[in-house]
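Slide 14.
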Amino acid sequence: MVRKDIHYDSPIDGRPITSERARADDLARSNCIPYDPGMKQDAACRRAEADAALERRIDDTVEAEIEKMPSEKRERLQRELDGGMEVEPLRLTPGVKPLRVTTGHA
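Slide 15: predicted structure.
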């Protein structure tokens, strides 16, 4: 049986890692898991799914808020959008108005 050579310093605490057992202990001590190249792809997919879900919730919230507006206000908003007003949604802290409205025309 051939064992691969292991020799590095732990990135967490600097201890020398010279065996599989030392590596396993280091991972356990720092509450880590061995790196798998697929982890990056999995994380990117989960992040994309979470972003898409957030976008859907934002869209639903905006739609609901527009539906609550009096018809005159909705019509005025539509005219402004048709006239070139740009709306840029921003993620902000709670309690801060979630939209920044640019009144300049595109």
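Speaker note: Residues 36-75 form one domain.
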